[in-house]
Amino acid sequence: MKALACPSCNEQMNYLGKFTYHCEPCDKTYQAQVHCNQCGERLELLKACGAVDFFCNSCNEMKSKSSADYRLTELSQ
Length: 77
Prior knowledge:
The chain has strands spanning 14-17, 20-23, 28-35, 44-48, 51-56, 61-63, 69-75. It is mainly β. A four-stranded antiparallel β-sheet has the order 1-2-3-7, with no helix packed on it. The model has no long low-confidence stretch (mean pLDDT 91).
C-alpha cells in the first residue's frame, strides 16, 4: 500500500492493513479513504490475484493506487 505522511507531523506512517495507518511520533491512527484524482468521487476497491486497483464509477475508468487521492480521517483510540 502507498506510504502516507502524517498530517500532524509529516513523518511517514506505518500501514496497519485495511487502509489504516499509524503515526508513531504522534501516537495517532488514521483511516484512509481513496478518492478519484480527477472528479473527487470515492473509488471502488478491486482485488484480483493479489493485485489492488480502483475503479471510478463517475469517470467510468480504472485508477491506479499511485494516481488515487488518499484522504485521512483520525480514528479515536
